[in-house]
Amino acid sequence: MANAPAFEDIIYEVRGRAAWIIINRPKVYNAFRGQTLEEMIRALHLAGNDKDVASIVITGAGDKAFCTGGDQSAHEGNYDGRGVVGLPIDELQGLIRDVPKPVIARVNGFAIGGGNVLATLCDLTIASENAMFGQVGPKVGSFDAGWGTCLLARIVGDKKAREIWYLNDRLSARDAMSYGLVNKVVPLEELDAAVTQWTDTLAERSPTALAFLKRSFNADSDSIRGISNLALHAVKLYYATPESQEGVNAFNEKRKPDFYSFVE
Ligand SMILES: CC(C)(COP(=O)(O)OP(=O)(O)OC[C@H]1O[C@@H](n2cnc3c(N)ncnc32)[C@H](O)[C@@H]1OP(=O)(O)O)[C@@H](O)C(=O)NCCC(=O)NCCSC(=O)CCC(=O)c1ccccc1C(=O)O
């Protein structure tokens, strides 16, 4: 690609009329640090402002993970970047909704924690048969309320959303599809062809009609943005507690957390 922007944590490619944003941190199952989100924000602005781009695909490198949320090795009571919790996560989440083009989550493995929230926020989700969805916040001393809870509840229903957040079971791609969290499931080897079929179809549709449709869906659920903002400030206070830090330490030390020793 001519004048391809230099990125370290992601790969940005324009394939036909589709911009692909690939989180390229497979050693940590495509978990994001501050820099990853900065680059994803830049890439979304590039794609959003490129009049030749009809749709945007977000995915992870390799066949293990789409994205597993915040990088726990870059989390010491706060993450390592800018923003309320050391990650411009609210900016990225808002941008996935605001960019006036359909955003497709290409889920090729684990979509866990903040990774599941990103997939939830995308307009469409296509998953490979090996994909797994879930939330782990209460296991690792975190939560992502707002988009992560309320938008999820709109999609899968209130009881199921509570179950996902409270019990933290992993959902298979087929289960996720049965709850409406996923539009389509295909074998891993057919994933790219299926994504390209969608992006080719979207490239034949009127971009202005698609942009208005996206804005209309957003308008109905945009009150959740305020809840997300409030919750991000709440999670900042929570990250400062020994109870939350026990969750992060336990994950990094590969042991079970002992939250009840730290409840204040
Ligand atoms: C994804 C797993 C379920 C996979 O489990 P398993 O198959 O048993 O493999 P593991 O051995 O656990 O993992 C393999 C390998 O990858 C590393 N890794 C995986 N995920 C992460 C991560 N997020 N950060 C850093 N490293 C990661 C793991 O350490 C292993 O490395 P080795 O070198 O091979 O040992 C499982 O891995 C899992 O549950 N991961 C944890 C995911 C996690 O904790 N994510 C953050 C969740 S926070 C949240 O859910 C709510 C909050 C939130 O979304 C949010 C809100 C505001 C700001 C930020 C966030 C945010 O997302 O953090």
UniProtKB/TrEMBL annotation:
Catalysed reactions, as listed in the record: 2-succinylbenzoyl-CoA + H(+) = 1,4-dihydroxy-2-naphthoyl-CoA + H2O
Keywords: Hydrolase, Lyase, Menaquinone biosynthesis
One Pfam family from the record: ECH_1
GO biological process, one term: menaquinone biosynthetic process
EC number: 4.1.3.36
Assigned GO CC terms: cytosol
Pathway(s) per entry: Quinol/quinone metabolism; menaquinone biosynthesis; Quinol/quinone metabolism; 1,4-dihydroxy-2-naphthoate biosynthesis; 1,4-dihydroxy-2-naphthoate from chorismate: step 6/7
A molecular-function term among this protein's GO annotations: hydrolase activity
Residues that coordinate or bind substrate: T68, G69, G70, D71, Q72, Y79, F110, A111, I112, G113, G114, S142, Y239, K254
Domain of life, per lineage: Bacteria
PROSITE patterns: ENOYL_COA_HYDRATASE
Cross-referenced InterPro entries: ClpP/crotonase-like_dom_sf, DHNA-CoA_synthase_MenB, Enoyl-CoA_hyd/isom_CS, Enoyl-CoA_hydra/iso, Enoyl-CoA_hydra_C
Site residues by UniProt (Important for catalysis): Y79, Y239
Top-rank EC class of the record's enzyme: lyase
Family per similarity comment: Belongs to the enoyl-CoA hydratase/isomerase family. MenB subfamily.
Function of the protein: Converts o-succinylbenzoyl-CoA (OSB-CoA) to 1,4-dihydroxy-2-naphthoyl-CoA (DHNA-CoA).
Protein name: 1,4-dihydroxy-2-naphthoyl-CoA synthase
Annotated source species: Paracoccus solventivorans
Gene name of the encoded protein: menB
